[in-house]
Structure to design on (207 residues):
């Protein structure tokens, strides 16, 4: 799946050093794996999604182009966030994309974003505990988080049930669509203290 707008945006992202130097097509295919994870759970696109740590625009730009829905892109780096704003203002860009600049721990405290998203996507955001804690508050109960995973499918123990339960998440399993993905579902409301303050999830991981 690709369009002129999407290809131009990702080519520009690569030229500015926000994506790796490799071909764009495999990176689009990897991003499309997030959509395939969603489609295994629901025949209809999510009404909204949030891309955690959007960086150079993957997978968020691919998902926005595919679904044309409400999408929030988050990043703490001003240059990358401004780039995303720029490409979403191009004439042929899909509508619905919004960029939030800041740390995820801060953005998660925005009441307008609390518990409203069907899907949270995360590619290379951080270790499992950090990604789960920083992303969970954005999800509505029943919503899912899809996380890009290392390629070794035999690796276990990255997503312990006890730690996930603290955050209100449950493990729906590891799946492969070319690349590997972890799928988590929000089973109940997240306690008010999560996510903890800036840097704390990484310094003192829950699991």
């Amino acid at each position: 799946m690709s369009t002129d707008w999407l290809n131009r945006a990702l080519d520009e992202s690569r030229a500015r050093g926000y994506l790796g130097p490799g071909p764009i097509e495999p990176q689009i295919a990897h991003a499309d794996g997030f959509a395939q994870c969603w489609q295994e759970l629901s025949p209809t696109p999510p009404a909204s999604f949030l891309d955690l740590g959007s960086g150079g625009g993957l997978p968020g730009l691919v998902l926005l182009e595919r679904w044309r829905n409400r999408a929030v892109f988050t990043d703490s780096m001003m240059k990358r966030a401004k780039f995303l704003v720029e490409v979403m203002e191009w004439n042929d860009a899909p509508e619905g994309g919004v960029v939030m600049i800041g740390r995820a721990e801060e953005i998660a405290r925005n009441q307008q974003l609390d518990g409203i998203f069907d899907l949270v996507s995360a590619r290379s955001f951080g270790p499992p505990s950090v990604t789960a804690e920083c992303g969970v508050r954005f999800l509505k109960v029943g919503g899912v988080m899809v996380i890009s995973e290392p390629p070794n499918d035999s690796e276990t123990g990255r997503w312990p049930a006890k730690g996930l339960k603290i955050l209100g998440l449950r493990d729906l399993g590891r799946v492969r669509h070319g690349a590997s993905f972890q799928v988590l579902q929000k089973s109940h409301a997240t306690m008010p203290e999560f996510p903890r303050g800036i840097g704390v999830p990484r310094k003192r991981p829950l699991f």
Q: What stands out?
A: The mean pLDDT is 96. The two ends are 37 Å apart (CA to CA). The beta strands are 48-52, 70-75, 97-101, 117-122, 139-149, 169-177, 179-186.
